[in-house]
Please model this.
Amino acid sequence: VQLVESGGGTVQTGGSLRLSCAASGDTPSINGMAWHRLQTHRQFLGQAPELIALIILKNGITNYDDSVKGRFTISRDDVKNTLYLQMNNLQPEDTATYYCVALDNQSKGYWGPGTQVTVSS
Model:
């Protein structure tokens, strides 16, 4: 499975962005997909990216971290094999590198290279 994110950029506080993640390869093996992010301070501390949103593909069930609940929406287009993250009311603390992650039916994880989101105050 190969993943490529797009849609990152710089926005002002309160703005919106939509991230996309195009999946290719053995996509029928994917059970779930998620967005993780790595904020600068976590990177300096040597911490791993944090899970912020996930979706179970067979039933569409979603879950969000409290920090993004009500502002971010995860969705997918099965025809295009693409995962999305609609981000509204962006805040400076949302500045991070955002990663798309897929989990297959063998519980193996695949990561995209990431896309940078910067929110200016």
